[in-house]
Each structure stands twice: as structure tokens, then as C-alpha cells.
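Z., the sequence and structure:
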Amino acid sequence: MRNIWGTRDDERLIVNWNKLGQPDDELATKLSSFIGTIVRDGKNALLIYKNWHKVPEHYKDHIWALVQSKFDLPSHARKWVMKCSGKKLKDWKANIKKNYYKNHLSFDQQKHYKDSRVYADQWEHLIKYWAIEEVKAQSDKNKASRAERKYNHITGTKSFPRVRKEQKNKLGHSPTRAHMFKVCYTKETGTPEATKAMIVCTK
């Protein structure tokens, strides 16, 4: 990401957008990753808010301005950028919780055991929040739900819109939902897992 942060205003990257308002070329991954670097900075997206919807609008305006400073984006792209920012912030919280939050530690011990990129005051807010009984119960429920997930995509960092565009170019027409599911979620066709995936997708 250093090469993107180092670009001048007249070197902004141009991303292609599909009719659904989604980036669908090879720069889509760079755009998404760049947004991730922004929201992981606590000055841009504070971790003290329960979810993205609670983040004040002026922070979102600042994030949009930072993205625009490096990428030449149409105005309608803001909706996608905000959605991506919310997802990146949620993933960032989940990551630091998984790697640094330990139930057996006291508050005084826990507040010193954190990711170096997280501001101390924001970390203390988070560990107090995660210690609330109702929050712990909801977290356990979410973990159980994720454990029951049947299929995981195999596209790596490549976005679904980009995969859809590649498949459209390859097939000569827009891929069906069933075809996209097969490409994104199954490693081989003809296996029992792939068959189940196709059934679910076509329901």
C-alpha cells in the first residue's frame, strides 16, 4: 500500500465500475485493501462505536476524501466505499479480539496486551464492552452460527464482481447464479459437496 499512499493527486488510479455500482477490474483488490489501511487507523475510524452505522458522518466524509485522494472515483462509488469501510472495520475488530482479547486476564492485565496499532483509550473501551454479559452471549451465538456455515468461497482476495466480469468475458454472456456459486464456492464439479452447493444455489 505504500506505493498508493505515495502517489500524487495527478496520479490517481482509475477503477472500472459495473452497472451494479461495484468495482470489477484488477484494481478492485487494491482499492479494498487501501480502504482497510484507512479504517485500521484509529484516527479515521474509531473503535468505540458499536457498529459502522453509529460512526459519525464526519469520519465517513474524511474516509471518502482519503480514498478520493488516491483513486479517481465517480460520485456513486461512495456507497460502495462506505459499505466496504464498514466491513473492513468489522473485520478489524474481529481480528484484534481473536488475537488479543483473553477472558482470563484482568482488566489491568488486558489493557496492556493489545495490538500496537490500537489506541489505548479505544482498546480499553473495547475490552470493557466485550466483558458485558449480554455482549458475550451474543458473541457465543455468532460463533455457533459461523460454525454451521456449509460453504466458504475459494476466490481469495478477488472480489465477486471481478470474478463475474471474468466469467462473462469467458462465457460470452452473463453467468447464472448457479454458475457463479460453482466457480466461487466449489473446487471440483461432480463431487457430493458441489452437488449440494448447486441445489442450494438454484432453490
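The first strand starts at residue 13 and ends at 14. Confidence is low (pLDDT under 50) at residues 197-203.

Let me know what you think.
H.
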